[in-house]
Amino acid sequence: MDKVVRAVISDMDGVIVNSEAEHFLSFQRMLRLDYGIDYTHQNDKEFLGTTDAYVFTILKQRYPEITEPMDHLIKRRTSLFIDIFKQYAKPLPCVETLFNYFKKENIPMALGTSASKYVMNFNLDTLKLRSYFKAVVCADDVKQGKPAPDIFLECAKRLEVDPHSILVLEDSQYGVQAAKAAGMRWCIAIPCGPTLKHDMSQADHTVKSLCDITPELLHSLQ
What is the pTM of this model? Predict the structure, then answer.
């Protein structure tokens, strides 16, 4: 492959693993059990692609009964998520096929996720995907999560590759916005489930799954 693309940054949730439903259930269960708050799918759509800290900051403003400190809230929500997710964890179709292609072409990869370090590490180790990534960056590593560019800029820094030579794989509107704000040359959107109605107009290409990201598509990137 002609190395127009010198590196790839992949999001995690919705790109390599579909855990959006489990994230929703963990928020819903926590808020209902601990505070009697009804957390709906409409609420969840508002927060897709953002960090736990962002979600709880907004929720604490809306619901005065949520008084616990941020670290307690995140730890409680993460524990519920792990309990639910570990029963169903598996990579999405074509993840390893595509990642092995990048590996064969000597194109380094980074993971750039809005998840916490604990959840990121759990996913990478459970799915046995850590070896594909030269660098991993999560919400805990930066000041601002997506749609701010911080996560992708930190990935580029650790990869030691200019953003203008990097391809980003994202599934959410906030992720696409973050990639473009970071100056990433290309972004391929792979909307799924709750992000199917997101505005992906800033993406260079939109595909249905990683299976559609073929060598021919990658060669066509200008």
Answer: 0.82
β-pairing, 186-189 vs 166-170, is parallel
* Residue showing tokens 């850590």: 130
- pLDDT tens for 142-179 read 999 999 999 999 999 999 999 999 999 999 999 999 99
Which amino acid does the sequence have at 79? S
52 in catalytic set: no
Catalytic residue among 2, 11, 44, 162: 11
Domain ranges in the chain are 7-18+90-220, 20-85
**For 20-85, CATH number?**
1.10.150
What is 31-96 written as a DSSP string?
HHHHH-----HHHHHHHTTS-HHHHHHHHHHH-TT--S-HHHHHHHHHHHHHHHHTTT--PPTTHH
